[in-house]
Amino acid sequence: MIEQIASIPLFKGLPKEQLHDLVNISVEQVFRRGDSIFCEGDEGKGFYVVVSGRVKIFKLSTEGKEQILHILGPGETFGEVAVFAGRHFPAFAETLEASKTFFFPRNSFIALIQKEPSLALNMLAILSSRLRQFAQLVESLSLKEVPGRLAAYLLYLSEQRQGSSDLELDISKGQLASVLGTIPETLSRILARMTAQKLIQVNASQIKIVNRQGLEDLAETGKL
Questions:
Q1: Residue 146: half-sphere exposure toward Cβ, Cα within 13 Å
Q2: Chain-centre distance of CA 64, in angstroms?
Q3: Residue 141 · residue 220 · CB < 8 Å
Q4: Going by C-beta distance under 8 Å and a sequence separation of 6 or more, which residues neighbour residue 115?
Q5: Residues 153 and 63 in one domain
Q6: Inter-residue contact 150 to 187 (CB < 8 Å)
Q7: What is the pLDDT of residues 34-51, one digit of tens each?
Q8: Which pLDDT does position 53 carry in this prediction?
Q9: Angle at 34 between CA 30 and CA 39, to 5 degrees
Q10: Are residues 79 and 9 part of one domain?
Q11: Quick one: 85 and 192 in the same domain?
């Protein structure tokens, strides 16, 4: 278990003594596909790290429409607001597939931070990155048309893969539509138009960026 803890970016570089302390306070949890991990408004008693599987973080409108905020995989954390604010979770968390997480109780983790301040610096770095993603999401949803949102998302995926032009969607088109704030039918039409304009090539879940400059221009203007 200590090897799994050590591989988590949040805990990178910690000495073995602190890693053992983390093992001692962590709680391993196993979920089936579609299980709810927590609901918006639940008491934030700690945070989670994805060990295996994938977890979606989402909000629900008053009409029940789902807006996906993040899709997280192994090594990524969620629910961190509970550590610093000690408040209720601001969104829902649900598994997209069979998953395993480590849960770190707030009070125990804060005690470790007091012993090892570098933990707090690591967490702040992750939260800063998450805040940047939120800012980009808000900008895309409020200022850009759906084609621009999709182009920006594909460029983001490419950035996450060290600039690769060959991308694989690890979520369904319905889930991607939710991330982009649209519906699957509209997403399919836009993918077809982007393919016709030779910006991308689509083969099932595989997407190849053909014209990166054109995709960047689309992400900027938001319109095909």
A1: 18
A2: 21
A3: no
A4: 18, 21
A5: no
A6: yes
A7: 999 999 999 989 999 999
A8: 94
A9: 85
A10: yes
A11: no
Same domain, 132 and 149: no
Cα distance between residue 198 and residue 191, in whole Å: 11
95 in Cβ contact with 54 (< 8 Å): yes
Domain with 85, as residue range(s), is 2-139
Phi, psi of 187 (to 5 degrees): -60, -45
pLDDT of residue 163: 85
100 three-state secondary structure: strand
> What one-character-per-residue DSSP string does 33-50 give?
TT-EEE-TTSB--EEEEE
178 & 97 share domain: no
- Judged by DSSP in three states, 202 sits in strand
CATH number of the domain where residue 120 is located: 2.60.120.10
β strands within 34-138, DSSP E: 36-38, 46-52, 55-60, 66-72, 77-78, 92-95, 99-105
Beta carbons within 8 Å of 172's beta carbon, 6+ residues apart: none
For residue 193, the Cα-to-chain-centroid distance in whole angstroms is: 27
- Positions in the chain whose pLDDT score sits under 50: none
Strand pairing class (27-31; 99-105): antiparallel
C-beta of residue 101 within 8 angstroms of C-beta of residue 50? yes
